[in-house]
Amino acid sequence: MISLLGNYYNQGAQRKQELLNSCAVLGIPDSRITIVDHKKLPDDPKAEWSVSLVSSVIVQHMRAHSFNMVLTFDGSGVSGHANHTAIHKAVSHLAFTGQVPNDCCLLSLVTVGLLRKYVSFLELPFSWLLPSCLRCIIGSQGYRRAKIAMFCHRSQLLWFRYLYITFSRYMFVNTFQVIPQGPKNLKVY
After folding, report:
1. From CA 19, how far away is CA 5, in angstroms rounded?
2. Which of 49, 78, 121, 133 could be joined to 86 by an S-S link, Cβ 3.0–4.6 Å?
3. Which residues are within 8 A (CB) of 127 and not within 5 positions of it... i.e. 6 or more apart?
4. Residue 41: helix, strand or coil by DSSP?
């Protein structure tokens, strides 16, 4: 997992600890987490990030841990958050330029419309019937664990996050599409 420090409201240290606590609940060890604190990558929903800079951070992490799969946001960033869409652009750039290891699959989380997003587990039949490369569906025990992990992010628990935790389909089902990869070792003259 790779994440930013999350210092939008000058809560970087607190949000870092919240992220580590949340990952612990999900069974992700600290050794598999990279938290980036880069002045050119501010935690700001309006900031435009450099695709090449984000790409270099991601590819370094991929190579350091020999991942065979990368899950990221799609071009809509689930919520339209500029930082989320920048991550998708960076991963897509890596794919297009052939910088992804041969055995690594790139998948992007499918953004759904507002109605589908907030019908909770009732959205499951739609996700099952619509084309998708990967579907992740969690049961009641998985939901409880995800809920506990979300509650670890105390500094971000605004009123609408409680609605998200209770009603969002992303707490129950996630669908992914493959990010197509370009040719490897492409030389442009």
Report:
1. 9
2. 49
3. 135, 137, 169, 173, 175
4. coil
Q: How far apart are CA 164 and CA 134, in angstroms?
A: 22
**Pairing state between β 2-4 and 34-36:** parallel
For 148-166, the pLDDT digits (tens) are 999 999 998 999 999 999 9
* Three-state DSSP class for residue 105: strand
Cα–Cα–Cα angle for 171, 82, 110, rounded to 5 degrees? 40
Amino acid residing at 72? T
Amino acid at 12: G
Q: Where are the alpha helices (DSSP H) in 6-109?
A: 12-25, 51-65, 77-80, 82-96
Token digits of residue 184: 């490897």
Q: Label residues 1-39 b or e (16+ Cβ within 10 Å = b).
A: ebebbbbbeebbebbbebbbebbeeeeeeeeebebeeee
Q: What is the CA radius of gyration of the chain?
A: 17
Residue position matching structure tokens 């739609």? 126
- Give the tens place of pLDDT for each residue, 97-130: 999 988 899 999 999 999 999 998 888 888 888 8
Q: Tokens representing 73?
A: 């946001």
Residue type, 78: V
The one-letter amino acid at 130:
L
Side-chain half-sphere CA neighbours of 79 within 13 A: 11
